[in-house]
Structures are given as C-alpha cells and as structure tokens.
Write a structure and sequence with these properties.
Butyryl-CoA Dehydrogenase, subunit A, domain 3, Butyryl-Coa Dehydrogenase, subunit A, domain 1, 15% strand, Butyryl-CoA Dehydrogenase, subunit A, domain 2, alpha+beta, 3-stranded mixed sheet
Length: 378
C-alpha cells in the first residue's frame, strides 16, 4: 500500500508555508514572551479558509481531506507549535461534534462563525482526576425544566482563556457509565463559568486554562445531539485527531533539524564547520531519517483514514512515533548548538520545551502503546 501527494496537495503546502512564515512567524516571539495568543490570527485564517479545511463548503469550509489537514498542521508547527495548537481546535473532537451531531441552529450560531474566525472555541474534557481515564470525570449536567445545570471542573483546556464558547463533556446519567456522558455548548458569558490561566513549560503562545462550572445554567438547545453517547462520539474522532497532532510534531522536528543543520554549517571549530565532524554529521543523518520515517507514518495513516479505514493502529503508531521522535530530534538540536542552544536567543530551546507535551496529550505514549498492543492481538 502506498500513497503520493497530489498536485493540489503540493500547491497547498507552498501556500500554507508562505502564510506560516510571513503571517505567523513575525508574531511568535511576542506571543511566547507575553504568553498570549495573537487573536487577530483567527479572523485572518478564517478569511483564507484555513480554520475549516475539513468542513463542507456549505458551512464555509474547504471540504479538504485529512492529508491536507496534516500538511497544514506540519507547516504551521514548523513555525510555531503553540499557535498551531490553538488554531486547530476548530477542527478537533468537540467542535467537530457540532457538525456531526448538532442542530442546524448550533451549526449556524457556533460552527460557521468558528470556521470564519469570528468565534474562538475550546473543548473541555480533561479534569484534575480524569486524564487518560475519561470515564472518571465527575462533571455533571442536571436537567431543570428547559435548561441544564452544569457543575464540575476541567483542567489543561486549550484556548479556555480566550474562548467565546466551550464544549463541555459531563454526565447526564452516571448509572449508564461512560455512555451516560453528554456534550454541551457553554457560552463565555454564562453565569457560574470561571476560567483561569495556567503557566506552562512550553507552548507558551497557546493559552491554556482551568475551567470551573458552578451551577452554570444553559438552555436545553445547547446540548449537542441527544443525551448520552458522547464518549463514543468523541472516540470516533480520535484517530483523525491523533494523525493531525502527529503531523504537528513532524513540523516541529523539521524546524529543529533545519536550525541544527544550518548551525552545523556555520559554526567553525578546530578549523572547519562542525558538521564536517562525524559525531555531528551522524546526529544530523539520524535526525533526517527519523523525521522522514515519522512523516511516512503520518501521511500513510491520513491516506488510510481518507480511504475509509478505521486505522486505529496506524494512527496510534504515527502519534507515538512522531511525539517520541521529536524528543530526540529537538534534544540533539540543542546538543549541536552547544551552550548557545541553552540560551533563550536561539529558537532550539523553544523547540525542545515545546516537544515534551506531545507525549502527554491526545492520549499519552503509554495509551498509544496499549492501543497498538490490542490492535496486534495482545
């Protein structure tokens, strides 16, 4: 089985790379320093159709395939992983459920403005005591007349501090176990909704927060689909999500590799560029090989997904390999830079810090290995 990029894919890569370098690149340093996402990017990207690649044209999307999404994720993350994480929330699980299961009113009120960059979404699943084990969430939604009352807390929520609305997972019927979870849209101005910012080691340009729900009363129409079944619905979208997440870390690794390669040609020690020393050239050879192997896993999984394959094993393999590969590549990039790699003036320190979170979100490395083990019959 094999795949190749179409002419449309190649043209798109050129255009999104140009956008990333020219429109996002100049904003990165300030965003990282201030730990504030440049919100002006949302309407700019929405106008160009970059926020709704996966959605049909009738809602303002581009109707693009998963390979195109991966190209977008790779090229954006090559410039800034944090910013990429923020702008990909509109196409990830949670918001995607509005398109798949939401009412037409919800699509017009939330999905369309999101695709256009006029509304910023967040998706709140993880809780202080429920990370990989989603079944352990404690948030609840109680029916009260024609409204739902939500209580609970969420943590590590991407975009929460800047979101116009938050898609929340909560139990409507705990007696049904994981199938008793439902999805709700909670507007930012809802009474009882509290959001605080979290400080992070890396990816500082994406704003992450804690969400508190205290008797948040929302209209009945804000439930996405019917009561129950939210866990299964979200699970369906994880394969695609993991592939696009893996693509981000291919892009991040590429940025680290390019920086290290350039430095190895410019830095002279003992009378010649350090790249001419075998100890450095072998590092760069390994980095290039691992990136290419990871890229193949990512795009093969995307290709299988677009063909209608469940590709659970392949998606987990791509996510596992890419997010662990980027640890090695960014670490070697710092090593090649020597003391300069440890200085804040050089971007490789940011790549190194940003890389770590890849093994923690969208299913930890341990979760990916568990999935792969099951898929191969263990």
């Amino acid at each position: 089985m094999d795949f190749e990029f179409s002419e449309e894919h190649r043209i798109f890569r050129v255009s999104i790379r140009s956008f990333a370098e020219n429109e996002i690149g100049p904003l990165v340093d300030e965003a990282e320093k201030n730990e504030r996402f440049p919100v002006e990017l949302f309407p700019k990207m929405g106008k160009l159709g970059y926020l709704g690649l996966c959605y049909p044209e009738e809602y303002g999307g581009a109707g693009a395939d998963t390979i195109t999404e991966c190209i977008c994720a790779e090229e954006l993350a090559r410039v800034c992983l944090g910013i990429t994480s923020a702008v990909f929330i509109p196409s990830m699980s949670g918001v995607m459920e509005i398109y798949k299961f939401g009412s037409e009113e919800q699509k017009q009120d939330y999905l369309v403005p999101t695709i256009r960059g006029k509304k910023i979404p967040a998706v709140a699943i993880t809780e202080p005591d429920a990370g990989s084990d989603v079944s352990s969430i404690k948030s609840t939604a109680r029916k009260a007349g024609d409204r739902y009352v939500l209580n609970g807390s969420k943590i590590f929520i991407t975009n929460a501090p800047i979101a116009d609305y938050i898609v929340v997972v909560a139990f409507t019927d705990k007696d049904k176990g994981i199938e008793g979870m439902s999805l709700f849209i909670v507007d930012r101005d809802t009474h009882g909704l509290g959001v605080s910012r979290l400080k992070k080691m890396g990816s500082k340009s994406v704003e992450t927060g804690e969400v508190i729900l205290e008797d948040c009363s929302i209209p009945e129409k804000n439930i996405i689909g019917k009561e129950g079944g939210a866990f299964s619905r979200i699970l369906e979208g994880l394969n695609r999500g993991r592939v696009t997440v893996a693509a981000r870390y291919v892009g991040l690794a590429e940025a680290a590799y390019e920086a290290a390669l350039k430095y190895s040609k410019e830095r002279v020690q003992f009378g010649k560029p350090i790249g001419k020393f075998q100890s450095i050239s072998f590092k760069l050879a390994d980095m290039a090989t691992e990136i290419e192997a990871s890229r193949f896993l990512v795009y093969r999984a995307a290709w299988l997904y677009d063909k209608g394959s469940k590709c659970r094993k392949e998606a987990s393999m791509a996510k596992l390999f890419a997010t662990e590969m980027v640890q090695r590549v960014t670490g070697e990039a710092v090593q090649i830079h020597g003391g300069y790699g440890y200085m804040m003036e050089y971007p490789v320190q940011r790549y190194f810090r940003d890389a770590k979170v890849g093994t923690l979100h969208e299913g930890t490395s341990e979760i990916q290995r568990t999935i792969i083990a099951r898929e191969i019959g263990l």
